[in-house]
Design a protein that fits this description.
Shape of chain B: elongated
Oligomer: heterodimer
Helix content of chain A: 55-70%
Distance between the termini of chain A: 78 Å
Radius of gyration of chain B: 19 Å
Number of helices of chain A: 6
Number of strands of chain A: 0
Helix content of chain B: 55-70%
Largest sheet of chain B: none
Strand content of chain A: under 5%
């Protein structure tokens, strides 16, 4: 333990020895106000989603990989020149 | 809270059936816990009641997510702690800390800690607590939280991990970095005191 650690431990030990603040009861009317507001507040929109979000993400990733794998041969077979051949801009501008 | 005789299961069941009286009971029962967490993690200038209200509203809106895997007060504590972190993040960065920011007693306590001159006098404990809060306020919210839980509340790494959702390695790393920042702050203060 270095010098600073000793100083810090001494300071925090002293701070911990301070008398604890008394446990405060809820102010008058606080619980009624909060309960009334909670009754009108909508449920968190993500409630329920959190539980399935990770599973959903994994399924989506698996589907993505499967889609690429299934279409890999098609992607490979399409020549890059096709893009140029079907590019409408040169045709519109009259550039050949 | 382990020996808490309050019937959480019954109360929560009634709250789920939109029983307003049960909701009030729940808030009144948990208020001291939430109040303690807010007061120990946030500067005195923050309105405790407003933040406590936010925490309870979050508790009610997320009630369907509570699965009963942990005691209900622990679940609420976690909401309270994360809400405090969000509040700290939203606050503007504090200006540079100066020796003149300390009260006379706080400066004495700090000077004594730094020089190891004498044992603490009675009555210096409160000043030490205020001083620690002022020093912690100079750190980033996550660093403040980890030091507060580790060094002031003397929670274990596992407890902090459960309370914050951070893994244990992250808790250790954050604590190490936070202490190094505090060390730098101490050194700066010592330099200012001498000058």
């Amino acid at each position: 333990m270095n010098r600073f650690d000793q100083q810090w431990q001494k300071l925090t030990a002293l701070a911990r020895s301070a008398p604890a603040e008394p446990a405060a009861a809820a102010p008058h009317g606080f619980a009624t106000r909060v309960a009334a507001r909670a009754a009108t507040a909508p449920l968190a929109p993500w409630a329920g989603f959190e539980r399935v979000a990770l599973r959903g993400l994994l399924v989506a990733a698996a589907l993505g990989v499967a889609a690429i794998a299934l279409n890999y041969s098609v992607i490979q077979s399409e020549p890059a020149e096709d893009f140029a051949a079907t590019d409408a801009i040169p045709e519109l501008l009259g550039i050949t | 809270m382990a020996d808490d005789p309050f019937d959480f299961a019954g109360c929560l069941e009634r709250v789920r059936q939109h029983d307003q009286a049960a909701a009030r009971q729940l808030v009144e029962h948990l208020y001291p816990l939430v109040n303690r967490i807010v007061r120990s993690h946030l500067p005195r200038r923050v309105a405790v009641e407003d933040l406590a209200q936010d925490i309870f509203l979050k508790m009610f809106t997320r009630l369907e997510q509570y699965q009963g895997h942990v005691p209900f007060p622990h679940w609420v504590s976690r909401i309270a702690v994360t809400t405090c972190i969000d509040q700290l993040r939203a606050q503007q960065r504090r200006p540079e800390f100066r020796w003149a920011d300390l009260s006379e007693t706080e400066a004495e306590v700090l000077s004594n800690v730094m020089t190891d001159e004498r044992d603490a006098r009675p009555g210096e404990a409160l000043a030490a607590r205020e001083l620690v809060h002022k020093l912690l306020a100079q750190l980033k919210p996550d660093d403040q939280l980890v030091i507060q839980l580790l060094d002031l509340e003397q929670r274990t790494i596992a407890e902090i991990s459960a309370l914050t959702g951070w893994n244990q390695t992250l808790v250790k790393v954050r604590a190490f970095r936070a202490r190094r920042k505090l060390q730098k702050l101490f050194q700066e203060l010592q330099g200012k005191e001498k000058s």
